[in-house]
Predict the structure.
Amino acid sequence: MKPPPFDYHAPTSVREAVEVLAEVGAHGKVLAGGQSLIPLLNMRIAAPAHLVDINRVAGLGEIRTDATGVRVGALVRHAAVERSAAASLAQPLLRQALKLVAHPVIRNRGTIVGSLVHADPAAELPAVLALLGGSVRLASTTGEREVAAADFFTGPMESATRPGELAVSAFFPAWDGGTKFLEVARRHGDYAMAGVAAAVRLDEDLRVTAAKVACVSVGPAPVVVDVTAACGGRPVASVEWGSVVAAVQDRIEPEADIHATADYRRHLTGVLVERAIKAAADV
Amino acid sequence: MTTKLFGEPVRRREDARLISGQGRYLDDLGQHALAAAFVRSPHAHARITGIDVDAALEVDGLVAIYTWEDLPEGVCEPLPLLIPHPALTHGRTAYPLAREVVRHVGEPIVMVVARDRYLAEDICSLIEVSYEFLKPVIGLEEAVSGAHLVHEDVPGNVGAHLVQEVPSADGRSAAEAIAAAPHTLSFRLDIERSASMPLEGKGVYARWDADDQSLRIYSSTQTSTSVRMALAAKLGLPLPKVEVIAPDVGGGFGVKIVHPWPEEVLVPWAARVLGQEIKWTEDRREHFIGSAHERAQVQHVQVGFDEAGRVLGLSVEILHDHGAYTHYGIIVPIITSTQLLGPYRIGAYRVEFSSIYTNTVQVTPYRGAGRPQAAFCMERTMDKIAQHLGLDRTEVRAANFIQPDQFPYDQGMIFQDGRPLIYDSGDYPESLRKLKDLIGWDDFPALRESARADGRRLGIGLGCYVEGTGVGPYEGGHIQITSDGRVHVSTGLTSQGQGHETVFAQIAATELGVPIDRVSVVTGDTRRFGYAVGTFASRAAVMSGNAIALACRKVREKALRVAADALEADPRDLEITDGVVHVVGAPAASIPLATVAVLSNPLRYAFDEEAKRATQFASTGGMDRPPVSEGEEPGLEGKDYYSPIRSTFASGMHAAIVETDPDTAEIRILRYAVVHDCGKMINPMLVEGQIHGGVAQGVGGALYEKMVYDDHGQLLNASFMDFLMPYATEIPHIETDHLETPSPLNPLGIKGAGEAGVIPVSAVIAAAIEDAEGLPIDRMPISPSDLHALRQGRGR
């Protein structure tokens, strides 16, 4: 459990960082919080020849909040967003999700953007970004590009980030309705066997005018399903949950692993869809 | 300040050191030692056809590479079979480095010694081993079919087969008693694999002293004395030239009683050959695939009983998955077979086990050591009887209890210490009464109904057990009171966090009448105490605790004799209070123990003011006898041993209330209650700590932990990401109550407490889930996904 040899780079600016990344290309790996990368290195599952430590890069530690949403820099730790009242006010789903991410010691080191780039289909933050239609800003020596969540998560542990690119920030749009993140994990803080982030909007008569969910651990990437139509424009109390659940279950592709069967994940997702939408509407 | 500390909740004296980073664990030592790392088999069953080290030889920093071919006589032989047994007809142990065939993923093949561990692992990755694949034998049923063999010369993969039969009082066999019984049931039970999984893995650090021709070994072990004897024999060294020290050890739970591990032989051997310090610290993956597991059994049960639920005949056939080797013998299935009887009087009993080889990590004792499987079997049986007859589950147990006036009670079997299974004392009806009070057994139906009205699903379950503790053959204690008045206690067995520095000091302070802050305790250091067995089987308090008490009594007697001389008093009139010997009723006539220690050692040469009192011209002693009287020894020291006639039997009962989510199938333990009887308690706070830790491991075994092998023999969850040990967040508040039925077998009246917490947990949780769900729970652990499948009627 010792990593294989690698060259270590510690740039202090984004420009310097992307220059190093351009030079090392596919042989480079960015180190931010290290909560996933370091175990992968120690178990020799990953063996990048170059490690680009961005912890000294200036300008990546900011949380910027306005009426449109929350922009989070690449060095912002989970715990910082979890504790940020402004971020929580602008987008409450962030704090709801972050409380489910591992444990406080991990959230103290781990970064939001790192979680997105890691693109674990069982992780909470990719689902939040996907549900809200957020985006990730990628920098390289040739400039910056903003990639929408729908295009960013390309597969299990795969994102649209190209060799030579550094994810410098992510944007989580605001939502003028209710949200909720629910999941069932084997142990407190584990990756979920199934989890559902829901965003709901009601009209003055409490009828559902918009409802969408993002499901984790049931596909190669977060599965976003718009269930507005399935909710039938009814008040939450009289929604026909069977058709809402069916609309979601039609879209997910759960697989079995040692913790849960595919059938159980499908069932659990259905239970959580109903619970999360009800809870999101209850604000 | 009272020195009567036996029975008091004294705070653990070791904790300030351990929790502030002052502990000295194995990897804290030998910072400049060379590092060892191992190439381990990636295949479950294969023949080694070649080992290519050419690329590895190029690496700067490489010191040595060893394969089996390089090992000398002694070292190259298979590891010792530690506990031979006549029924273990086909015992097999591994070579320190694989010879020709590997039999589980993780078996060491090549040892690399390099400048540091990083390099050693780099070098391992450059060594290419080629294999001819053999069919892996995975799973008990596949193994007993005998179609493929783990060891070519072990037919049917059966390492051991043992039948024990205890006829009923009227001479009937279990089969006859079952056939004649008014009611019978038969069923199958399954328990999966778990493991000790101490937070600190194994490790060994060896230093060869060429000038002194001696070897010092630090090992994260549960038995330093036995490691010492094994290594002296393997390496052909005189015993006095080998020292083994167990430094602070970060948990053992059984896996570190096994010895010598391959690494424990190879690292000291290489240190001697190379004349350099070498250290190996096991990493987590190595621990998963290269040490030991436990638990896995399949049990087929037949039981016959009467209208009251009394068991007239019980027959149990056990398939025990032993993994690839039987290094530790067949202790685990023997304990399952014998401890299955629990607190009950069974009409006639027959138990048969087969110990089966598979191409998996070997099975050796893990806290509980076969008893969780035994309690699962017996307690599930009791529940099934109750359900069959429509009786309350506690009534069926009460109908079968051994009564308080029936002790000593002979179960008619041979226990793991080779001695008769005779329970020394206990009060099972009182334990059950306390448990029902504690959990609110009789009020539960009302609680269940009110929860049901809110759409919640609750269930309650209980489980009982008896645990043979304090197995022999012996332990010893040595006490030295030095001329500064300090008391130095040493015992040969080792500590892995149990709190020995506290409880052994409590015993010494109480016996000697000295303040506890003047008492220090050393364990597991062969330089201080050479004769010992080890720390396992809930034995340390019983064995070393009593030995230390006996040694203290010897020292006390001598101290009073020396003090009586100085005070010109009768020793029978003397007492020791707060470290001062004084005449009862005349406190002015006194002498500190420090001075007694000075006087006990007649001196030629003074080294300080106090020492002058013991020199030749200061002595007022009689000139008609030698300075050291016949039969006496200089100094204030005492050594004694405790060797019990047989084990002492602790007992306990647990109950839990569990909630299952009707939709998600999540399982939550709402309440967990324990009534425990380990005889006289040395320190009730530490007893509770042992119970808490045990229950936590039990919850792990009931709801979270299993070793998932695929058909190729790959362990799919060999990391803490996927092998789910419970966190504090998964452990319920544990409510405890105690009973103190003293053991008549030892001077302190104590019984072991180390394993108690873990034993019945799977049985209790299974019973509670079954009660909540109305579905039979016959296989543990159980996950929400498993429960969902059961609800769907698909089984698992």
Chain B has 19 helices and 29 strands. The two ends of chain B are 61 Å apart (CA to CA). The interface with chain A takes residues 117-118, 121-122, 125, 283-285, 663-666, 704, 708, 716-717, 719, 721-722, 724, 726-727, 729-730, 783-785, 788-789, 792 of chain B (CB under 8 Å). The mean pLDDT of chain B is 96.
